[in-house]
Amino acid sequence: MDSFNAALEELGHPVVTQEEHEDISGTFTALEDPESLADTILSAGPAEKNEQKAEENVFYVNFQNTPDTPQLKKEFDSIKPNVDLSIMFFNNKANAMVESKIKDGLLKEPTAQANFKAKCINAVAAACPWVPTFSSQVLKKSFTVKKKIFHETLVSTFTEGLGLPKDINTKFEGLLNNMRNTIGVADKAQTDCTFFILLTFYVKDGVQQTYRPQFRAIYFKVDQSLRTYCRNKETQEDVDVVMEYSQTDGAFNNEFFVTNAKASIQKLLGVATDTFIGNTMNIDV
Question: How many CB atoms are located within 10 Å of the residue 233 CB?
Answer without folding.
Answer: 13
